[in-house]
Records
---
Amino acid sequence: MSAPAVTRRSERAGSPREPRYLTLRLGPLSRRISVGHLVTAAILGVVGVVILLTALSLGDTILPLGRVLGAFTPDASRLDHKVVVEWRAPRAVAALVFGACLGVSGALFQSLTSNALGSPDIIGLNTGAYSGVLLVITFGGTGYLAYAAGAVVGGLVTAAVIYLLAYSRGLQGFRLIIVGIAVSAMLSSANTWFIVKGDLDLALRAAVWGAGTLNGLRWEPLLWAGGVALLVALWLPWLNRRVGGLELGDDTATMLGVRVESSKLALVVIGVMMTALVTAVTGPISFIALAAPQIAQRIRPNGGSLDVLGSALVGMVLLAGADLIAQHLIPAASVPVGAVTVCIGGLYLVWLLFREGRRA
């Protein structure tokens, strides 16, 4: 008589567990959030804070945690305030903010293309933003606002060209990637021509900025970029709903009430803006937007579709960790963070190709 009971217990133990949800209410608004996703987000947030505090502590002078926290108080010494608040904090905070921006942009474009390679750096939007800033530098523009305007305009024009060339009875993801790679190659050639034909000062400025670096970053450009990024972040719930609907296919999304083409266009504009904000301050930083959404999807409990918020958190951790490596990997030298992310991205691509090859 006990055997059937054992069988039933085994079946229950082997069956997949249903995800648990919490309902959050703020006035008339309410939202259901998976407990597993909430725990994952909390862990990523803690990792980001640990990296932030580590970046504030390390340097030519290693400061204990007490002095780091004390530097933000009114009673802090002038030296601690200058080192932590004015020199180290802008770079450390920028790595978190810009990593989140790249993660969001990567999630949007990978959702639009339904392809793991559909990120802004592969499609060519980073290159377009770089072209916009190069034109600003060529015509004598200086300062963050000029660079930001050039990056946004360059990114949007590039996105518009790719969108129009790839559009054929709707926007097809694979076609968008192929057209984007072709446009990116042409823009890269044009960028090289601008640098070669420009004077030495232009070439040096373009080379340093084009490496993708957070060196020497101060609060003013970060506050401008962070403010715009915060406004875009308010749309994350709307973005998540559109991303989830589009991943089911155009026909299914239409049945669910999603305006497919207008939603795709809105996601392209938002994704370009997030990429351009980063490019205007740091130069083009590759592979964060490529890897963050895929990592976020794999660490999500129960899998599921691409998650914009999860991609933002993973991008935040990736760029902050890469910048920490860039600062302290080689003693007495600071490597551009773009060089570190390229190495990490190359290893990721090799792993991805090996994994897909074994599946085939």
Note: Residues 38-359 form a domain with the ABC transporter involved in vitamin B12 uptake, BtuC fold (CATH 1.10.3470.10).
---
Amino acid sequence: MQHLIRTSDFSKEEIVSLFDDAREFLKFEYNEVLKGKIIVTLFFENSTRTRSSFEIAAKRLGAEVVSLDVGTSSTSKGETIFDTVANINAMKPDALIIRHSECGLPDKLKDYVECPILNAGDGKHAHPTQALLDMFTIYEHFDGQTDGKSIAIVGDVRTSRVAGSNKRLLPKFGIDVSFVSPECFRYEGDDFKTYTSLNDVIDNVDIIMSLRTQLERHNQVYFESLNEYAKDFCITSEVMGDRDILLLHPGPVNRNVDISDEMLKDPRNKVLEQVTNGVAIRMAALKKLVLQ
């Protein structure tokens, strides 16, 4: 049985096929390919965008969605997450979508289910559908011609599961990945180029992906305020100039911290397009996994 725990669960050929389905789903025409199927969502972390995107995707395919309230679930009464998932599995759902703060948990749950698991984010580790929708947005923008393109992922790369998934996926499509961040948020590894200033890369990139500064994932204070961080890392019209650069962000955007108000209105900004693409990509992923 195939799951979507990390982007490497799909080959490049499978991902391109996924993009073909997503392109059709962007027409948002009537579709009941998953009619009669039941999709369970289990979110142990707050989520608006990802959760609603998955639920809309499932419903657009004709599936029924059961969204479990983890605040009143058995885990709050002392039951382990493994027993909770085993009990849900005993009810015979057709897919389980889970988000949890523990890195690697979705992978550990595979032995407790008889249906596909879709990872909606696990700690600092991975967010595969976000990376897939990011890649799809890039792929469509460049008409599939992504070999030799370069991206700077800017911000809190150390704790970002979005950065973690994208650094693994984008190079499969020939995209050169580099990271830009303050030293305290620096990517720790030898595989990618790292910078501490946007000025070092701005003239050599085709894509910028800004990230949210996730202060809740740090155990110490690095900046007196987000405004202090924004002085050097906010994507503004002054930073972008007239360069032909695609601007992305996984959301939610901290306005005038991650991206300025002006740049959020700029046609080079594709944040809302990413949101739309996210529904189509999740529709394609659900179709692939549920009907396998």
Note: The beta strands are 38-43, 64-68, 95-100, 117-122, 150-154, 176-180, 193-195, 207-210, 246-248.
